[in-house]
Amino acid sequence: MRTHTDGYGTVSIPDDAPWGKQTQRSLDHFQVGPRLGWPLVRCQILIKQAAAQANAQLGVITPAQAELIDHACTQLLADAPTDFFPLKVYQTGSGTQTNMNVNEVIAGLAQQHTGGQLTDTPWALHPNDHVNASQSSNDTISAALMVCTYEGAADLLAAVTLMRDALTAKAESWHDIVKIGRTHLMDAVPLTLGSEAHTWAAELTHRLTRLQAARTALLSLPLGGTVHGSGQNAPQGFSATACQHLAQLTGSPYTAAPRPALHIANHSVVADYVSELAGLARVTEKITQDIRLLGSGPRCGLGELQLPALEPGSSIMPGKVNPTQCEALLQVCWRVEGLATTASRCVTAGSTLQLNVAAPLLGHIVMEAHELLAGGLRQFTTKCINDLTANRPQIETHRQNSLMLVTALVPHIGYDAATAIAQHAHQQGVTLPHAAEALGHCTADQATTWINHSCQALHP
Question: For 34, phi and psi rounded to 5 degrees?
């Protein structure tokens, strides 16, 4: 163990730990919950790399110091040594300790790169004076949160697109299957199975559009705003220069926010994006519930869709198969909707005066929601949607038995007469054409022709 003494006391740090006193104090004092995830830490490292390049360009640090920072960041990004970043989600709400963890690890690696020992003092780079130059925890953590959200969205958008396209393909293959519709869970007029699946795909397209718009709002970063947006201790031009370097490093078009205080005091753009994740979860839940209901049975449910049988569904009932992929995705959706509620509290209750103090938790929420939704949608697509099949005989049986086909007679004989036909058919247990002829409103052949023409005119 090596020790460090300052105005707050003495800290003991493992000799081989590449961090300093502030990381160690956080480890000692905050021990509840999971670690803050690598995606957010990775974005913080990228920001340090961009800031070093900007600081060297503006003369804040020397080119040699910037090269040491760049080398350490490149090594960290390549190796992803998560053990170097052990701090918990539930820490200081500004993320100061994670910011300093990153600063200290970069300085520690630079110390080793120059041939020094971690036990030597002072190190070749100072975590605050050099690695954190022209920055504060407030602006860098806020920027890292936005970058992490923007970059993490790419995999999710690809997963949504995959599911949307799979549903579209099913819709096209089912364009000619006429089935009975259901409203209020009761029989309704017919539609095609293709139309039903096209609606599911359209819902996902709508959510994609909203997600992409919310994601674009994350490109304007508060980097260089320092403590509360005034830019104190950052040189003129640092914000724009650092964002340019970050854009080059990531390939994403980041720019400096015209009012960085907005994103330091209130992480509303991140919360807005998470709200869109909740909207996606709700739409996905509806689609999943529809598929599960249409696949219920196989003999005593609706049974219009046949879901792939992936594993035995019961430890006591032989041959039972359950809609397990539906159930797994539903649980994902419910979790994400709950995360969005927490994210709302992170902004409404966490934003006070000049700083939001729930940044680590908000970052954890985004990372978890991305992982769950992207993985859940991709799994559901490959293991359920791609292998869905239509049970044509069951669909036709339901269609023929439905009383709501009588709607096709309304333009010819009127609403009241059609109502009487439906009631008579239901009470007597006969077909609609038989009931129509028995009541004298039209012949059975006429009723059959009108019903068939109505069904043939349906479009997906």
Answer: -75, 165
